[in-house]
Amino acid sequence: MKMRTFKRHLGESVKSLRRNGWMSVAAISAVTVTLILVGVLLSILMNVNKLASDVENDVQVRVFVERKTTKNQQDTLKKKLESYSEVKKVTFSSKKEQLQQVVGSYGNEFKLFGGDDNPLYDTFDVQTKEPKQTEQVAKKAKTLDYVNDASFGGTSAKKLFKVVGSIQKWGMIISALLLFVAVFLISNTIRITILSRRNEIGIMRLVGATNGFIRWPFLLEGAWTGLLGAIIPIALVDFGYIWIYNGLQASLASTSYRLLTPGTFLAEIDLLLISIGIIIGALGSFVSMRRFLKI
Fold first, then answer.
1. Which residue intervals define the domain ABC3 transporter permease C-terminal in the entry (predicted)?
2. Distance between CA 26 and CA 38 in Å, rounded?
3. Tens digits of residue pLDDT in 5-48
4. Which domains does the chain have, with CATH numbers?
């Protein structure tokens, strides 16, 4: 397509938006509401995916060492754990260190359990090369000498992954339904444009205009509708996410979990919303032309 022709189609699409008045406003508003909800859902889904990844990476085996185990016996146990092909790292934590963590989390009253009254166990925290190997390593560790018990966060992680899977599934379904509604509303707006310009289109066909020449202004009109409808959602999602991110930073500081940092993440969301807006706008136009333009 020549640049001059494209500019003409672009101008026609802008004029058509103005001509349709409130119908154009209604279509843009529909896209705006849809993209706000889609943007919120995408932000949630992407952070849920990161949370699932963080939890998966944080899953490890905790090996509880029997009381009265000597230092040499602990070293022997550590070497045995490190010899497993599935094991990436083994870290020792004394019962005194663990009591200090409890005191820091729950208060000084737990200092009463210091010294010989400490009910906690010395532990080895075993990090596996793959999260799915934790259960296998835990079972093997239970059979070793000087081991009182071995546990892993697999059960809780599996439950969390199940919840995450449900959120992802329903999030995608809801997003698809919202996009379908937006396409439907845009197609109705373009249909009115087509009906109002039926005589003009008939004349264009009589003088030899190609199907592509007739379609382009309507496709561009739909794309404009989607693009304009993405402006408010981008602003709301960006400012809203930054506000929530700053508010939750302090709460998450003591954990190993983090939200996706703004910047690159929001740039990706913005680009995605613009792309979705343009695509559903053009798709709405295409659907309308296919059904109502007899060309």
1. 172-294
2. 18
3. 667 666 766 676 677 677 777 778 878 888 888 888 888 888 88
4. 3-56+158-292 (no CATH), 60-152 (3.30.70.3040)
